[in-house]
Amino acid sequence: MRMIYLSICACTLLSFPACADTDSGENGNGSGNGTEKTVHQAASPVSMESLLDEMVSYEESAYWPVPAYRSLQTTSTDRRSTGPDKPYWFGNQDNTRYIRIGNDNADRRVEKVIFEQSGPGAITRIWTAGNVTHATIRFYFDGERTARLSVKGNDLTRLPFHIPDGLVVRHLHYDQHGGTSLHIPLPYQTGCKVTIDEADPDYGFAYHIGYRSYEEGTKVQTFTMEEAVRLGSKMDRTVTLLKNPPSYQEEQLCQAMQSLESGKRMTLTLPEGTNAVRNLVIRVNGGSRYAQLMRGLIVKMTFDGKQTVWVPLSDFSGGGIGACAVDSWYLSADGKGRSECRYIMPYCENASIEIENLSSQTAEVRIEARVSEWTWHTNTCYFHGSWRQEAGLQTGSDYDSNDNREWLFSDLSGRGVYKGDILTLYNYRDTWYGEGDEKIYIDGENFPSHFGTGIEDYYNTSFAPVEVFHTPFGGAVRADNESSFGYNTWLRSRNLDGITFNTSLRFYFELLGWAPATVLFSSTVFWYGTSDAEALHTSGENEATDPIPN
Q1: Confidence (pTM)
Q2: Residue 328 lies in a domain
């Protein structure tokens, strides 16, 4: 086929400022008031309102946070799991597990404590499962003995203030089992405790509570009902934006088009200077074997001389194997060859986006990048995307055996913020494969600070769903069969619950199911890191060109 190449930067580019250790302004967009800052700082004090603003700020994603925080998680995971060299490391009794039982409240009522932290912080995500309709969940802030907030059962949609759909989500099996995911931030200055009473131990109650622990001295405005009511309309606007992300049509358009033959590559060179890609659209036409073509088109990105992205387009789109339709905050795709990425991508001097065709087919490929000026702060981070695949993995079903395995989902080195991921898989057996918990180790810790209760729980639903669903924070974008046989793709976006790390992040999923099975797992992770940060143990051309299972 005749080669056609076109590269256009559809804008007049000015001389942008060079990177510096200081800048003017606090917004990361060159619109500041002239006050010199060596770092980009979030709003102070931290409040429910400032966190809602941060939730829908792509710009905030690209910074190491100031004020700094650690991202942590408390869950109902099996308390017998105390270490990889100890019995029950793969234990699956993840229901009705509590930190302690106490009556240290004004009414001397016996309550089971499921979350308890001191110091400044904010709850960023609550996930619940289990039909505990007669129980009450209570929230105590800043050492108070009378609960400031409470809700009957585990139905977080019934909290006593307006929360629009999208910030709270009922799970797919809500009518049968209950279960909701809440993304409303709940900040506190000196501490927070969450309890539940009357949970049926025979039926069980499972939970995740993700939270930020801010460094000592951080000023935080503690949650109040008055503030929550006042912010009702802001929550509505937040959901509207989450469900209708901006497309940055007024930003400078740079594009490249090419008839890309097998073994060839195309490159879009971005404007020099201190800029950021605000929006990236990739369009693909042609090829009779769509799934294999999208897996064989490799997205590579280089910022300031370092390649930080190497991901098959099928997975970069969010759809995984088969490149199906996606609707989320950071990623969208139509399932027909158009994908859109809204992770912001700043660079200091130069950048390029490359697509290499490792497939056996020819395709028409178009890259469209919306680019604008960026003010560089000393805590600005680079965008990263990494991919890993392994076939022939064996799941176990004896949860009390230490002969089970864990799969390395991601291994990151350096300093950064973990912002989201995709798990795409092929299951060779008609049974649930996803009983395994996530285990995330930060900065070389000996015990994971994130220890979950199952794959579907991590992706914001419960009870082994086999249905496609989309939320602003992710979901299941592909589910081929009710039996769980075949292809499944999961996606999670981390807005307020991004995970900070100073030296390393190692992420594992346990390989557990309802019966022994063989699976193929692929992971794609999106994160921000410093110039020396990198992903380890990634996959490459051999895995990307493996035939896709039918």
Answers
A1: 0.93
A2: yes
